[in-house]
Amino acid sequence: MDCEKRRFAQVSILALLSLLATSCAPSVPSPASAAGRLALAELPGLRAAADADLQAELARLAKEQALPLQLAPANTVDLTATPRSRIHNANLTAAERLQRALPPISRGLWQTRTSALYAGGPLRLSPVEIEQARDLVALLAVPRARFREALPTEPGRWGPRLIEGMLADLGFLEPLVLGCRLESIAAAVNLADRDLERAIEHLEPQLLAARILAVEPNLTTRLAAANLRADALHLAQAIATHPQATPATHATLCELLLAHTTDWPADETAWTGERAAGLLVYELVRDGQYLSLLSLDEVADLRERRTLEPTVRAVMRHLDADERFYLRTMRAVIEASRQPYHERKEILAGIRRELAELERSSEYPLIAGQILLADLEKAHLLQAEDRAATTAWIAALASASGRNLSALPVNPLTGKALEITREADVITVRTEALAGWPEIRIPLADRTASQPSPERLRR
Q1: Rounded distance, CA 360 to CA 350, Å?
Q2: Crossing angle (nearest 10°) for helices 219-240 and 3-21
Q3: Which stretches within 104-193 are classed as H helix?
Q4: For 18, how many CA atoms within 13 A lie in the half-sphere containing its CB?
Q5: Reported pTM
Q6: Where are the alpha helices (DSSP H) in 242-360?
Q7: Which tens digit of pLDDT belongs to each residue from 150-194?
Q8: CB 115 within 8 Å of CB 225
Q9: Using CA of residue 277, residue 278, residue 279, residue 283, what is the dihedral sign?
């Protein structure tokens, strides 16, 4: 699933599980609770499966320290604690601090006003919108300051167990995205006032949020980080192409991008986490809660076609084979993710072709094919586009600030070196296969106006 679909699915799953919890025996922890999800993470269903191949794969994953509780051990905090009981606890998680900085009671109105001005992508506000932005920035000055304070500076501080994948509570992404959009709007006001230094200050929180989010073992947060970084690059573009921008401006932007991307996470981190999260999905199905994975529309469609009960029976009858297919496929996916994107594309396409072929047979893995691997290729492409766009912008800014690149960076989408041309008044970087940035152009200011800082730029 793509990022937005995943967020909707997570809300739906947790809501449905909460309803199902009312029918559970008191002694059985509900998967809607943290304790219930920890119980699923023990993989009781998989451990009890009679399938010898599944048991062999379970043993391999345990040896590789790749099981859910090995990747993220059980939290030591009191799982029965509620936000209300912890309200005076100074050790709040980043997720709790974000919820308090941009609280749900006001967030809907703020999102509406924010989206009317900027909903991501190129940062272009009209004169009237700039004046509206001034009002909004002044109104939300305190929440914006709290948003910055809420951002963690190192991984693992968000709060929810992100290894739980689709079952993880990712409600904090909503205030996180809102806070970053507010930073872009505030920067647009600064740019209108020709205050580039202050505009750059609004870029760092977005790059920080993307960097810390991207390293988590969760595919949804990895793709959310890519979206946040794309917006940050659009802000960098607005600053770099401003008429007042100088080589020093470009050098500052380049250093900032480098500072937040030198520890770029390996693609396999997200996919290793995704496999562990997939194991929890199968545990949920083994627990008899397959329908909680479907949207209400999907359930209604199955009812209308009178295939609801047959579908559930088919899922349960072939569950061992389904999970076996998933684990075999994910092992190939994780191994492929260690290769550059342009080298793994054919492996991913082969998985798509295999699923298409199986769909015409009785061996089609319903859980793996329709839910867990549905958007496999798109997710890998988004990871690669994130890296390609960031690499291209660093190269463009480095060149615009007067640095001679010893070697041209490689576009991970193609495996070829980026094409950089320098003319008297513009730097151009052509990024083949990158849909969002087919070309990056940075106008060059009078080089005598301001000289860039002497620090050596590192790739």
Answers
A1: 16
A2: 140
A3: 104-117, 127-139, 141-150, 173-192
A4: 7
A5: 0.88
A6: 247-259, 267-286, 296-304, 308-317, 319-336, 341-358
A7: 999 998 899 989 999 889 999 999 999 999 999 999 999 999 999
A8: no
A9: positive
